[in-house]
Design a protein that fits this description.
By secondary structure, this protein is an alpha+beta fold. It has a single domain, classed as Rossmann fold, CATH 3.40.50. 48% of the residues lie in helices and 16% in strands. It is built from 3 helices and 2 strands; from the N terminus they run αβαβα. A two-stranded parallel sheet has the order 1-2. α1 packs parallel to α2. The chain is elongated, with a radius of gyration of 14 Å. About 8% of the residues have low confidence.
Amino acid sequence: MIKKSAFLSLCVMLFLFTTGPAAAGAKEPYKIGGIFAVSGPASFLGEPERNTFELVAELINEAGGINGHPLELVVYDTEANPTKTVVAVK
């Protein structure tokens, strides 16, 4: 639960530092990675977390990105498997 709260706090901070709709596509995108258990036994948690991650990025991009840089998401599905989680992080 703490990780989810920290992630949402980070997203809110990123949203507050956006510059506006001007020139969102003019700069290189910032890549942000997310590792979620979208499938497998923990998918009831991972899927909503991934959806929130994508929604916040969409809102930030609609507002012009961060200092004119759009966000590009990289999402990995761990399938609630510890080995796949380690591989995805590396």
